[in-house]
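## retry 2 of 3
previous attempt timed out at serialization; input unchanged, resubmitting
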Amino acid sequence: MVESAPTPTIPSPQPLDSTRFMAGDLCAYLECYLEPEQIKEVYRAYLFGAEAHEGQTRQSGEPYIFHPLAVAKTMAEMRMDYKSIIAAILHDVMEDTHISKERIIEEFGEDVAELVDGVSKLTHLKFRSKAEAQAENFRKMMLAITRDLRVILVKLADRLHNMRTLGALRPDKSRRVARETLDIYAPIAQRLGMNAIRRELELLGFAAHYPMRHKVLDAAVKKSRGHRKEVMQKIETAICGRMEEVGIEARIVGREKNLYSIYRKMKQKRLSFSEVYDVFAIRIIVADVDTCYRALGVAHNLYKPVPGRFKDYIAIPKANGYQSLHTVLFGPHGIPIEVQIRTEEMDRVAETGIAAHWLYKAGDRHSATAQDRAREWLKGVLEIQQAAGNSMEFLENVKVDLFPEEVYIFTPQGDIMELPRGATVVDFAYAVHSDVGNTCVAAKIDRRLAPLSTPLESGRTVQIITAPGARPNPAWLNFVVTGKARTAIRHYLKNLQQDEAVGLGRRLLEKALSVYELSLEQVPEERLRALLEELQLPDVKALLADVGLGNRMAALVARRLSVTEDADASAMETTPAGMGRPLAVKGTEGMVLSFAKCCNPIPGDPIVGVMSTGRGLVVHREHCRNVADYRDKPDKWITVEWAPDGSQEYAASVRIQTANKRGVLASLAAGIADMGSNIEHVSFDERDGHATTITFTLSVRNRKHLADIMRRLRRIPEVLRIARARG
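## retry succeeded, writing output
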């Protein structure tokens, strides 16, 4: 038997009075699936909550207890367990009343108390800004969710009722709440597969945040609905008839696209409303998976499919557990019509997501899959939290991870990995494992070498090539898109810079102490401890890191550590800070030692080191004009010299004036390659009819290597003049 349902309309937000839901109504509703003893506990929680909120009212003027009861009603509609219902009733008592967590544990047990605590905001801490408070509260909630998924269900039900009653708030506050809902809570609902709640949150958020756009778009959809109603009925009738002919039992439902989804699609793809073809769609619901594919064949035989628009989310489910077949057909008059084909179980999970686990526990494989996928995502969220520097960074990275569209990539072993659209090879490497991401040096896409910044497409097989000594490149932050990759790279570089700063700081301090014929090990423990207390630093490592990053001068720290109680401090003041053996630099010190781009020093050049706050040691050529600013700041200078081993390569710039003839650039490149150097960058500075000036940035080992390259290039007939450039 094939049933055809009319295209549903999206309900308008209900008036405030209709949202009132009494305790007796809730208990009567719970009788259909909870035990009497459990319902008694729920009613006891209502009495406890009503007493705690006594005298409190909402912005609308109604008693506050109506809000927790409405949240509990939404939880009951999801068939949640009685502890979740109790937590919904009590979700604001810790935040808005004198009731403590210990009191809730005493009355209702630890499970309920943890759920209530997970939803409660951090009201006892002071924050510098509203944004920071929001981010820290979000981090607290997400950590609670990783312990118990029911926390997010309570929070979503709470947010849903707040959105339904948003009209009672000031316009500026309602817009802020709506923006937060669209940015965070609606995407979370989608990520957890709870599409029914997600759609309502989006609709209410869109209407509150963009009232005029909502009004215009709503009018356009209503007008379009009238035009397309006849076409949709014709298509539904045709599909119904063909399904009956081949003996397929199906339920056919018309679907209308969410207003916010239409708006987002128009904005992202720069479309007019008339160019959005999937405003209306048809959903075919059948008994089992095999019938889904049979129904797909029937639909494709009836109307021609649009090439490249078929997606099989049954074989490869979405990250939130969503499963369905999607296809687009050329309908009557050439109108594209989207068709979704799924089973009853898939339809249920598509609407309720992880809540289906509580709604239909017995033998529901699909709801268990949605739960597993939610837990996998939350495991990734926990990793992001552990590596994030602060709550703002955590919120930013989780927002990126809530991006709804995915690509599906295969590992060489045939496993499927889900990534956000636009994800690169580096994102894939970090999705495999953080250690793989940290040590990746190259990759093969479908057995061909590809740059690490390559955006991935669904169906590709990616193999990551790693090297033990490799480490993340800061430039990766310019193209990675997943929160996990971004957080892992920042975390690694932050720790790496800290370790390198400690190493450089130790060398600088040892050099400064050598002036006083001391070493760090010879400094008395009590003197070192006194200095750390005075500077408010936790340990010696923090002191060395400060020195290495240029935040504290090694000479001044050494002077403080060398002073004894009976020493003459004035004598110390006269000791030259620059005495002692110069600091040897290799170029491999890492992020806390850099070579100035203004003069590009290379081994063989006389050099000087300048301490830059937060950056560490910057090495310049001795006669670099930018060093002149530090002539009257001797405490910023560090005497440095080149280390003996010359295995490292350095950047040097060469300015060449050549005759303007064909093939000159190729001759220069060949000459540079013959001398064992790479061209890092090339630019054409001046050009006329007779001559061209070219600046090359080359990688060289030392000053002699550069001189050999210049001597080789000077022999090319077209070269008129060659000189080393400043940088």
